[in-house]
């Protein structure tokens, strides 16, 4: 079974750093890209960026470029989303999702999704 | 970025009803359009890809159509387990963008 399992919920203070993870199993981790998607409380879905786990090449949405860092460790089939200095406005659910590589005609097809990681930033 | 506009934002229907949601893109996206279902407290799930293709294992009461800028998602006979928020998503260009969602409730 193809599966993405994310790390657990986090409660942080403004200014703190954080890294959350997404571990893939049941498929060749380096054959698909991993995207991160934000869902703020009661709101819709926003694509943040993606990574090619085979070489850690990344694309970011302009809205998130410079605010987060996406990385991966192919040796343990895990992708990461990282903040160096959290803000209250980063409070949200964060999902990872698998997608075919950019040269595929279905590059934007997100399936499956991880279960989500809730990040709460509050003083 | 390509803007995706869904309508309605919310919808109340009875079990057995035919339900239709529309999604309009701000520019031509060919058929690079997917539909997702998100049940409360759960991650989104892919239902329809490339505008009209049913994902494996998804019930046949779900369907999609359209191309260019105008797309439609239909549930032919609403079931209680279909209560969810539905999102369209384009991937003609980076960044992929989602509609604002349609919250479906049982009347």
Run of helices and strands of chain B: EEEEEEEEEEE
**Average pLDDT across residues of chain B?**
97
Contiguous runs where pLDDT drops below 50 for at least 5 residues of chain B: none
H/I helix tally of chain A: 0
The number of E-state strands of chain A comes to 10
Largest sheet of chain A: 6 strands, mixed
How far is the first residue's CA from the last residue's CA of chain A? 40 Å
Task: Write a compact overview of the structure shown.
With 123 residues, chain A is mainly beta. Chain A is built from no helices and ten strands.
List keywords for this structure.
heterodimer, A: 123 residues, mainly beta, 6-stranded mixed sheet, 4-stranded antiparallel sheet, B: 107 residues, 7-stranded mixed sheet, 0% helix, 50% strand
Describe the overall structure.
The complex is a heterodimer of chains A (123) and B (107). Helix content of chain A is 0%, strand content 47%. Chain A has no helices and 10 strands. Chain A is globular and about 40 Å long. In chain A, strand 4 and strand 5 form a beta hairpin. The mean pLDDT of chain A is 97. Chain A is mostly beta strands. By secondary structure, chain B is mainly β. Chain B is globular, with a radius of gyration of 13 Å. Classes of the chains: A mainly beta (123), B mainly beta (107). Chain A binds chain B through residues 35, 44-47, 59, 61-63, 95, 97, 106-116, and chain B through 1, 32, 34, 36, 42-46, 49-50, 55, 87, 89-91, 94-101.
Blueprint (SSEs and pairs):
The complex is a heterodimer of chains A (123) and B (107).
Chain A: E1 3-6, E2 10-12, E3 18-25, E4 33-39, E5 45-52, E6 57-60, E7 69-73, E8 78-83, E9 92-99, E10 117-121
Parallel strand pairs in A: 2-10
Antiparallel strand pairs in A: 1-3, 3-8, 4-5, 4-9, 5-6, 7-8, 9-10
Chain B: E1 4-7, E2 10-13, E3 19-25, E4 33-38, E5 45-49, E6 53-54, E7 62-67, E8 70-75, E9 84-90, E10 97-98, E11 102-106
Parallel strand pairs in B: 2-11
Antiparallel strand pairs in B: 1-3, 3-8, 4-5, 4-9, 5-6, 7-8, 9-10, 9-11
């Amino acid at each position: 079974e193809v599966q993405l399992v994310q790390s657990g919920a986090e409660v942080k203070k403004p200014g703190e750093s954080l890294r959350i993870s997404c571990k893939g199993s049941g498929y060749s981790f380096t054959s698909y890209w991993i995207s991160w998607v934000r869902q703020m409380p009661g709101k819709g879905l926003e694509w943040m960026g993606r990574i090619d786990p085979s070489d850690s090449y990344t694309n970011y949405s302009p809205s998130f470029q410079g605010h987060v860092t996406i990385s991966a460790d192919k040796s343990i089939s895990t992708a990461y989303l990282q903040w160096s200095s959290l803000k209250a406005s980063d409070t949200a659910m964060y999902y990872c999702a698998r997608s075919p590589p950019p040269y595929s005609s279905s590059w934007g097809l997100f399936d499956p999704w991880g279960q989500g990681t809730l990040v709460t930033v509050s003083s | 970025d390509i803007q995706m506009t869904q309508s309605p934002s919310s919808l109340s229907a009875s079990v057995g009803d035919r339900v239709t949601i529309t999604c309009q893109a701000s520019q031509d996206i060919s058929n690079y359009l997917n539909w997702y279902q998100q049940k409360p407290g759960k991650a989104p799930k892919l239902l329809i890809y490339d505008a009209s293709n049913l994902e494996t294992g998804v019930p046949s009461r779900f369907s999609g159509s359209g191309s260019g800028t105008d797309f439609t998602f239909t549930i032919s006979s609403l079931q209680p387990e279909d209560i969810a928020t539905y999102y369209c998503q384009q991937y003609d260009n980076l960044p992929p963008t989602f509609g604002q969602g349609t919250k479906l409730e049982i009347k």
